[in-house]
């Protein structure tokens, strides 16, 4: 094992070369100064609002080095922030990455992490414009800040769902949680089996729904929106709480992911409560026609918004029960 022996200055210079900060018109000054300088560019003559989001990626909480490759960790680190921008209907512009690394971390791991993160950034026109580095006494810590733009006053918020709105979700749910469950089971068996990232891509390499979020915002289709980072039950509860409404879901309509080989549908509980799928959950007024696919992504109507403050799940026979948030929540006892 080759430990990190290059200096902080050399590490920043290496990442700076990878990031190619001069490539973006919106980032006038990138890595190399005390601050990144962003110039917000009007789109089609419109004024814009700036979106800012931040997310931690912590070893032992969000990933394990024996489960996740450096490429997966780098991709997921940025995908988390990009998904937040997508949930507002925004366009990502720049990212800032702060890294705390153990002294004995192989330099090759850091390089693979950075190349994967920057590769995803380049696909979405995002410039890595700055950040910070430090030595960590315990594990890898990565903090990503993503900056985006949206036409002034047009950000899609969580707080605008209304009774009677239909409830939709993109893609399929539960694939990421199923992967984690399988890896934990293999660990308990002391197995060295590793999951194929292609078969469980929604966990290892999730795709942020940037284009979908933009279309929903541009066409005025979504009244409220959130990404499914914490799980359907928890993220729907966020919409309901912010909008002062309730919801009713149809059990048979919740789209469950297919995983593994041979492919099989995940258990309903994973689809309801598993997080890190990074799909978009949104509401739309009943008069809006929502296509079955938008930007190449399947869209499924799974229920509707109600006047009450509770969320109910009904099965095929019409029998319902209250669905409480059971997705991811830090500090839960």
Give a short synopsis of this structure.
With 333 residues, the chain is α+β, with helices and mostly antiparallel strands.
Tell me about this structure.
The protein is α+β, with helices and mostly antiparallel strands and 333 residues long. It folds into 2 domains: 8-151, 60s Ribosomal Protein L30, Chain: A (2-Layer Sandwich); 158-322, Alpha-Beta Complex (Phosphoribosyl-aminoimidazole Synthetase, Chain A, domain 2), CATH 3.90.650.10. 28% of the residues lie in helices and 27% in strands. It has 8 helices and 16 strands. The strands form 4 sheets. Strands 7, 8, 9, 12, 13, 14, 15 and 16 form an 8-stranded mixed beta sheet that branches. It has a 4-stranded mixed beta sheet with strand order 3-6-4-5, covered by helices on one side. α2 packs parallel to α3 and α2 (70-87) packs parallel to α6 (210-218). The radius of gyration is 21 Å and the shape is globular. The protein starts with 7 loop residues before the first helix and ends in an 11-residue tail after the last strand. The model has no long low-confidence stretch (mean pLDDT 88).
List the helices and strands and how they pair.
Blueprint: H1 8-19, E1 27-29, E2 37-38, E3 48-58, H2 70-87, E4 91-101, H3 107-123, E5 127-135, E6 141-151, E7 166-170, H4 175-188, H5 201-204, H6 210-218, E8 224-227, H7 232-243, E9 246-250, E10 258-259, E11 264-265, H8 268-273, E12 280-284, E13 293-294, E14 297-306, E15 311-314, E16 320-322
Parallel strand pairs: 4-5, 9-15
Antiparallel strand pairs: 1-2, 3-6, 4-6, 7-12, 7-14, 8-12, 9-14, 10-11, 13-14, 15-16
């Amino acid at each position: 094992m080759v430990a990190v022996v290059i200096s902080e200055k050399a590490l920043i210079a290496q990442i700076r070369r990878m990031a190619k900060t001069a490539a973006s018109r919106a980032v006038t000054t990138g890595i190399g100064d005390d601050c990144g300088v962003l110039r917000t560019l009007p789109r089609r003559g419109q004024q814009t609002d700036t979106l800012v989001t931040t997310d931690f990626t912590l070893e032992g909480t969000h990933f394990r080095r024996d489960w996740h490759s450096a490429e997966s960790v780098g991709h997921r680190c940025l995908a988390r922030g990009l998904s937040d921008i997508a949930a507002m209907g925004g366009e990502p512009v720049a990212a800032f990455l702060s890294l705390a690394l153990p002294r004995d971390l192989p330099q090759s791991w850091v390089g693979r992490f950075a190349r994967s993160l920057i590769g995803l950034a380049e696909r979405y026109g995002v410039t890595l414009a700055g950040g910070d580095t430090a030595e960590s006494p315990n594990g890898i810590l990565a903090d990503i800040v993503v900056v985006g733009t949206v036409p002034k006053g047009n950000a899609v918020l969580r707080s605008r769902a209304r009774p009677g709105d239909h409830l939709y979700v993109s893609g399929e749910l539960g694939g990421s949680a199923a992967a984690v469950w399988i890896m934990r089971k293999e660990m308990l068996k002391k197995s060295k089996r590793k999951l194929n990232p292609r078969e469980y891509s929604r966990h290892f390499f999730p795709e942020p729904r940037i284009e979908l979020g933009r279309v929903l915002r541009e066409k005025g289709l979504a009244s409220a929106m959130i990404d499914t980072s914490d799980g359907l039950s928890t993220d729907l509860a966020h919409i309901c709480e912010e909008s002062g409404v309730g919801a009713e879901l149809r059990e048979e309509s919740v789209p469950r992911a297919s995983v593994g080989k041979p492919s099989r549908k995940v258990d309903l509980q994973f689809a309801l409560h598993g997080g890190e799928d990074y799909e978009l959950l949104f509401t739309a007024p009943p008069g809006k026609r929502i296509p079955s696919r938008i930007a190449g992504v399947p869209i499924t109507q799974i229920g509707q918004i109600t006047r009450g403050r509770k969320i109910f799940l009904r099965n095929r026979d019409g029998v319902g029960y209250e669905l409480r948030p059971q997705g991811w929540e830090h500090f839960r006892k």
